[in-house]
Amino acid sequence: MRETIDKAYAWFSAAVAVLLLAGTLIVILLATASFLRETAAVVMASGAGVTYEDLQQLFALLLGAIIALELAHSVHLMVKGSKGYEQVRVVLMIGILAVVRKLIVMEIDQVSGLLIFGLSAAVLALGCAFAMLLWVDWTRTSSEKG
Question: Among 15-24, 45-54, 57-66, 123-132, whose mean pLDDT is lowest?
Fold first, then answer.
């Protein structure tokens, strides 16, 4: 009975992951189209130069597309059944990109110092976790080789 439940859950999980991957691909296409449309609009209107707000918007759209792409990569790993370091690394990278995106799009003069400190602490914590993961992976691979 337990084996049947495990097989049914594995099938269900794979089916949901495939649906999520299809949805994420649509989001990637929409985000990329939005970035390209905004870039074209900025280029067409850049006779007087590009403003900081335009660049801020372009970077926000670009990072949104990259985050969606990384999320699709994470879901793809789930569909393949990959577990472990690679999936955790992708999740950490998504977190770092999301916080950095927030730092880029926020108006510094309209937020509290506490929020900026919190976001900075989040980037530091995610970066440290990412570095530790890379170190563990490096030591594991170098010990297997030697």
Answer: 45-54
